[in-house]
Design brief:
Length: 75
């Protein structure tokens, strides 16, 4: 009864620092869908920093989100 998984979707999420508003830091997130399932973390980070270098808000962090289907391979 081995449990296996298949990656259904991969997304990249960037968290952007938009500065201070009324004394509080404001953050925005942008999600980029339909990444290749075999994309490496190095390539995802490189793409995120390249995209965000063209924008005014500062890049705070990059996240990779994967959705997987888990199933029992045995029966």
């Amino acid at each position: 009864m081995a449990i296996t998984s298949d990656v259904l979707a991969t997304k990249m999420v960037t968290r952007l620092n938009c500065g201070l508003v009324n004394g509080k830091e404001v953050f925005k997130t942008k999600t980029y869908s339909n990444l290749k399932a075999d994309a490496t973390i190095d390539s995802i980070h490189a793409i995120a920093t390249t995209i965000c270098s063209l924008q005014v808000p500062t890049l705070e962090e990059v996240q990779r989100t994967q959705t997987s289907l888990l199933f029992n391979d045995g029966q």
